[in-house]
Amino acid sequence: MLYALERIGMEATVTDDHEKIMSSDKVIFPGVGEASSAMKYLKEFGLDSVIKNLQQPVLGICLGMQLMCKYSEENDTDCLGIFDADVKKFDLASRQLKVPQIGWNQLSGFSKPLFAGINEKPYCYFVHSYYAELCKETAAVTEYGIEFSSALQKNNFYGVQFHPEKSATVGEQILKNFISL
Amino acid sequence: MLTKRIIPCLDIKDGRTVKGTNFVNLRDAGDPVDLGALYAAQGADELVFLDITATNEKRKTLSELVNRISHHINIPFTVGGGISSIEDVSVLLQNGADKISVNTAAFKRPELINELAREFGSQCVVLAIDTRKEEDGEWYVYLNGGRVKTETKCFDWAKRGVELGAGEILLTSMNHDGTKQGFALDITSKLATALSVPVIASGGGGTMQHFVDVFEKGKADAALAASIFHFKEISIPELKGYLQERKINVRL
């Protein structure tokens, strides 16, 4: 993630310091891992309320986005509740689809500003076993057996299920758009 | 729709890309970062860097290389070659690798797969299997770069690997590797349809039709090749255009 930001000429710091997070211009909340242990960690360090109350643009990536939802089926976890969506496990064995979804899939139905300058139906890189359901805050839709929210937005909060830092030039454009918010 | 992936593989020796066949006649093919970035710009979906250095200093050289790759390449990449511990993996991931591949060390101590999956998540653990079809018609697992035969069948080991937490299987057919006569469709299809994780087919890709076959008949999720890309026999844009014309879903 840091290297991806460096590639687009941005400086970033990794921190769990409340003051530093609250005073940053932008906050990126990435995450690979498991929902319940991540939420436990956030609560233990008081970061759950810090994140929920941020006023600047916040971008959750992958698990980060899922944690910004209401609830995750992954180990029955109550999440931050920023987005009004639940996170569910792909149940696709009957459709001969593999879980996790690994690879490049298409986005549709997306809207600005996170996707400004992006061509129709761009491909992004996904690695996930759980997905956020469609809701009124859905900002992009992707289909893998079913349609799910590949991006969410509510006020200053943005979330993407895919990895913009690994999604070639499309991902770089999305990161640049976020940085310019 | 999820696309089929095209993955160029770069063999690395002492921090440089090498080209050659079957570990002989290696010649220097330049900076792996430059070559990787070129493939990324041409539309490669992922990259695999396979370290074939056999010296004690290899770890440091490799982690420095991985760090440089992460600074310059904007698609996912896997690093493999001689990985045998959580510590090895931790260094590579910290330097920006997205996934690592394990082979011989995992076969000798299968718990390694489980330990890596628990520590870092299945999504970054690729189980690489070198396999050869013997006269009895069965596919067996080979170790140490194909030099050591085992009595374990490829399918059994792949299945076990997935149960232990491998997130993807990188399947190389030694019968096909280097032949340019096409991928091993039978074993690829067997694994790809029976396992719950993606299968990357490797070995034998020589023409664009071979890639069509490995996706359609072999049911592979991804296809890996080295020399045909390095020697510019097939370019990635040309290959992807060909696949798309034949209704195979690829990222263009």
Give the overall shape of chain B, derived from the CA principal axes: globular
- How many structural domains are formed by the residues of chain A? 1
> How much helix, percentage-wise, in residues of chain A?
10-25%
Q: Looking at this structure, what is the CATH superfamily of chain B?
A: Aldolase class I
Q: CATH-wise, what's the superfamily of chain A?
A: Class I glutamine amidotransferase (GATase) domain
Report strand order across the widest sheet of chain A.
1-2-11-10-9
Beta fraction of chain B: 25-35%
Task: Specify the overall morphology of chain A.
Answer: globular
Strand content of chain A: 25-35%
* Total domain modules of chain B: 1
The count of DSSP E runs of length 2 or more, i.e. the number of strands of chain B, is: 12
DSSP summary: helix tally of chain B? 10
Task: Give an overview in words.
The complex is a heterodimer of chains A (181) and B (252). Helices cover 25% and strands 28% of the residues of chain A. By secondary structure, chain A is an alpha/beta fold. Chain A has a single domain (2-179), classed as 3-Layer(aba) Sandwich (Rossmann fold). A five-stranded mixed beta sheet of chain A has the order 1-2-11-10-9. In chain A, strands 4-3-5-8 form a four-stranded mixed beta sheet, covered by helices on one side. A two-stranded antiparallel sheet of chain A has the order 6-7. In chain A, a hairpin with a 4-residue loop joins strand 3 (71-72) and strand 4 (77-78). The longest helix of chain A is centred in the C-terminal third of the chain and has 12 residues, at 168-179. The mean pLDDT of chain A is 93. Chain B has a single domain, classed as TIM Barrel. Chain B is 37% helix and 27% strand. Chain B has ten helices and twelve strands. In chain B, strands 1-4-5-6-7-10-11-12 form an eight-stranded parallel beta barrel, surrounded by seven helices. In chain B, strand 2 and strand 3 form a beta hairpin. The model of chain B has no long low-confidence stretch (mean pLDDT 92). At the A-B interface, helix 1, strand 6, strand 7 and helix 6 of A face helix 2 of B.
